[in-house]
Amino acid sequence: MARFVFITGGVVSSLGKGLASAALGALLQARGYSVRLRKLDPYLNVDPGTMSPFEHGEVFVTDDGAETDLDLGHYERFTGVHAKGTDSVSSGRIYSNVLEKERRGDYLGKTIQVIPHVTNEIKDFISIDEDDVDFMLCEIGGTVGDIEGLPFFEAIRQFGQDKARGQCIFMHLTLLPYLKASGELKTKPTQHSVKELRSIGLQPDVLVCRSEHEIPEKEREKIALFCNVRPEAVIPAYDLKSIYEAPLAYHNVGLDQAVLDAFQISPAPKPNLARWHDVKDRLDNAEGEVKIAIVGKYTQLGDAYKSIAEALTHGGMANRTRVKAEWIDAEVFDKKDVAPYLEGFHAILVPGGFGERGTEGKIKAAQFAREKKIPYLGICLGMQMAVIEGARNVAGIAEAGSEEFDVEAGKKRFEPVVYHLKEWVQGNHVTKRHLGDDKGGTMRLGAYTANLAEGSVVAAVYGKTTIEERHRHRYEVDVKYREALEAKGLTFSGMSPDGKLPEIVEWKGHPWFIGVQFHPELKSKPFAPHPLFEGFVKAAVEVSRLV
Ligand code: GLN
Question: Which of 4, 42, 205, 391 could pair with 397 as two cysteines, CB 3.0-4.6 Å apart?
Fold first, then answer.
C-alpha cells in the first residue's frame, strides 16, 4: 500500500516542481523506501509526442515506448527508476479515454460529467500499480487556478478522502519575490496561492518556497501562520549551482523530514546520502574543461535537448572534467564552410531532429569530424546524417539522401540511404506503418535490443555485446548499403537481432566516431553516466590534451 505525495505549484510556473519532486524521490530512496514518480499534465494534447520542442522542450521516451513530459527525465535521473507509460498523463489522454468509454456504452446511458467521470478516470490513473511501491509521488503540471488544471486538483482532493487518513499528503511550491526597493521578501503571493488551494479543498502539509534570498525565521513563521502549515514544514528552496545538489540541499533544509513527519512516520529511517555526496564531489572537484559543439536545430530553447545536456554533464562527471557545451544552429553553415564554426572544439555531437532544415549543415559537421579526426557522436538523425555523409563523400553515392526530406520536398532524384520504415519486429510482434499514417504515437518507440560486433569500439565502450536502448524515429538506415559502406570503412557495429536494422555505425581508423539510431541520453544518470557519454567525453579529453 503506497503513501501518496501530491505536488502542486502556485504563483508562477517554472519553479522547479519537477526537480523538487525528483529530489524528494531521491531522498525517500536514501531512507530505504521504494518510490515511483508520476506527472499529470493539464494540457489537451493526448501526449507531448506531437508538440514542438521549441514550445514544450524535449519529449522523453520510456522503455515501454510512451512519449512523455520531460519531467519524467528528471525523475529517472534522480531516482534511477525507469518510468513507464503509465507515469505520465494529460487532460487530452483522460478525455480521450472517457469519450472512448462513452462511445462504447460503458457508462450505461449516464450523462458524462467532469465530476465524477473525468475525476474518476484521473483517480484510476493515479492508483495504477499503487501496491508496488512505498511512495507514489504525483506532480500536477501548471499552477493552481489554471482552468485546465481544475479537474486534477478536484481529483486529488477526492483521492485524499477516498484513502485512509494519513495516506496522502500535499506539497505546494511557491515563490517569494524580493522587492529591491524595500529590501523585503514578500509572502503575499504565497498566501494567495495557498488560499486558492484551500478554496478548492486542499490544505498543503508542506510548503516549498523558492527564493533568491535567505528567508528570515520570522517570515517563515508568518508564512506558517497565514498558510496554516507547521513552521518546520515551510521549506526554503534557494538557487543552486547544479541541479544535482538538490537532494542534499533539500535534505539540509528538512524537506524529507517534513514529509515523513506529515505522514507521522516516526522514528524516520536514517538516510544514506553517499551517492549524492559523491555526485557533489565530482561536480565540485572537476579538473580542466572540454569544449563540445552540439550542432542541432532546436538550439534556442535549453529544454529542447535537456537529456543530452544532462548526459554530457554526467559524462564530464565520470571523467572528472567540466563539459562546456556550445549549441550551434546547423543552418548557419548549410551553405558555408564549417571550419570557422567548428574549429577549436574537442568533440562534435549531432543530436536527433525532424525535418530537412539544417541537415546539410549537420552532414558537413559529420564530414568535418571524420576528416579532422575529431570525436563525433551522432544521435538518431545525427547517425543518419553521418551515414549520408559517408555514402556521398567516401562511398561515391553522390545522390545519397533520406526519404524524410526528399519525399517531403517532393524531389525524385536521390538514393534513399535512409528510408521510411514500413515494418519492423519488436519481440514477437510485427509493427506496420504507411507513409500517410497519423503523426502521433506511430514512430518506432521505446526499448529495443541491439547486438554489437565483437572487437568494435562500441563493444569496448559498453563492455558487452547486447544492449537495450530507447528509440524514437520513423526513418532507418537501409541495410542494403551496408556492404558498400563497410568496404569504405563505415562499419555497422550494432544491428537489430534480426540483422535488418542498423543500430550503430562507426568509422574504422577514426579515434572515436560513433552514430547511434537510438537515444542513449535518456538512460544516463549522474550516479551512473551512460557509457557512450563517458566514452565520448573521454575522447574529447584526449583531444584537449593534444592541443
Ligand atoms: N527524423 C528522423 C527519423 O524520424 C530522426 C528522428 C530523431 O532524431 N529522433 O528517423
Answer: 391
